[in-house]
Amino acid sequence: MALGKDYVTQECSIASALEVVGERWTLLVVRDALYGVRRYNDFLVHLGIPRAVLSARLRTLTEAGILEKRRYQESPPRDEYVVTDRGIALWPALRALAVWGREHLMDRRLRYFRHAECGTELGSYGECPACGTVVPVADVLLTPGPGLDPDPADPVSRALLKPKRLLEPLETDHV
Amino acid sequence: MALGKDYVTQECSIASALEVVGERWTLLVVRDALYGVRRYNDFLVHLGIPRAVLSARLRTLTEAGILEKRRYQESPPRDEYVVTDRGIALWPALRALAVWGREHLMDRRLRYFRHAECGTELGSYGECPACGTVVPVADVLLTPGPGLDPDPADPVSRALLKPKRLLEPLETDHV
DNA sequence: ACCGTTGGTTCGTTCATTGAACCCACGGCT
DNA sequence: AGCCGTGGGTTCAATGAACGAACCAACGGT
């Protein structure tokens, strides 16, 4: 729905992008999707977001082609939300925000993003300094840093304590 | 205000960044500041934002060290808002959002971002493909594209029809 | 027959955004 | 002196979005 009528007059691709992903919670949902979160309940407990808002965001992100709703079992019918190529293309923007936040707001390292092939930490625009290439999202390895709570309450945060690649589906312990 | 209390539990530098710049209008104010907008009235007419919201955003951005309020004349006292190094550091994030919006939402080119030294259009992470270096913000030349309205209503948009470097103060015709 | 899980919707309260109106300090004009 | 214009705001009522608690529904298991 968006910020809509006001942003439309902006003639600016930044404004257009923010119309789609600029609402409260939206970019955090996309972040979680890139981290491998796919199920409604996992988004819910990890984000601490009101259910109504989560439903609305999942719907608009699906309509925008950033997530795809996919039936993963019949009977009982269960759906999951998987990030699409268009959503994966938001990685550089999320990465840039993370770098800015880390350098200007944080006093400790929460996570490291590494090139899965060689273990080198990514540079500021997502490149591998050792290999000299921009690392595709699927080859980014997410590893915990020293500032992270070692015993978090929710199962999603617990699952994220293990190193894992982006996009790889998250294994929570509700199995 | 901020998105505050909910985002705080996130242990994530993206969430921290969005606490500061994730509210409605905030990133567009920063974009305008990078484009050289400095005066209250210029932000107002260019963004079409309610005055109360603009005042609030300018205040929180100043408190966050992203803008700096600077007296540019006494009697009558007049202030302008100048983007700081911390604000300039948001350029990669805005750039990444612009690239995503352009590729996934726009059907026409509104603006080109070029390396001022050589005129080459910037690559997707803000580098100059010809020179092989990441271009500093002050050396980015903003030039109009074919999709841009050639006769916009507000003076700020009119001033942005001329090629200009980022950060360079905008010359509107209210002089 | 009942309970638990997943994935929602509904609803009343609180909070943010909007747009219009108002304010004030000053300079300049007549 | 009185008045108008400009820049940079604040105040206020009405609307819209977010919050969180409660409810709902389809199914499997016991």
Explain what you see.
- The structure is a homodimer.
- With about 180 residues, chain A is of the alpha+beta class.
- Chain A folds into two domains: about 5-85, Arc Repressor Mutant, subunit A (Orthogonal Bundle), CATH 1.10.10; about 85-165, no CATH class.
- Chain A contains seven helices and seven strands.
- In chain A, the strands form three sheets. Chain A has a three-stranded antiparallel sheet with strand order 3-6-7, with no helix packed on it. In chain A, strands 1-2 form a two-stranded antiparallel sheet. Chain A has a two-stranded antiparallel sheet with strand order 4-5.
- At the A-B interface, α1, α2 and α6 of A face α2, α3 and α7 of B.
- The structure holds a DNA duplex (30 and 30 nucleotides).
What is the strand and helix layout of this fold?
The structure is a homodimer of 175-residue chains.
Chain A: H1 13-21, H2 26-35, H3 40-47, H4 51-63, E1 67-73, E2 78-83, H5 85-88, H6 91-105, E3 111-115, E4 127-128, E5 133-134, E6 140-144, H7 155-159, E7 164-165
Antiparallel strand pairs in A: 1-2, 3-6, 4-5, 6-7
Chain A binds a DNA duplex (30 and 30 nucleotides) through residues 1, 6, 23-25, 39-41, 44, 49-56, 75-79, 174.
Order of helices and strands of chain A: HHHHEEHHEEEEHE
Low-confidence stretches of chain A: none
- The CATH architecture of the largest domain in chain A can be given as Orthogonal Bundle
- Return the structural class of chain A: alpha+beta
Reading off the top of the CATH hierarchy, the class of the largest domain in chain A is best stated as Mainly Alpha
The CATH superfamily label of the largest domain in chain A reads Winged helix-like DNA-binding domain superfamily/Winged helix DNA-binding domain
If you average the pLDDT of chain A, what whole number results?
Answer: 93
**How can the largest sheet of chain A be summarized?**
3 strands, antiparallel
Strand order of the largest sheet of chain A: 3-6-7
Q: Which outline of chain A best applies?
A: globular
How many E-type strands of chain A? 7
The level of helicity of chain A is 25-40%
Q: What does the oligomeric state look like here?
A: homodimer
| Biggest chain contact | A-B, 54 and 54 residues
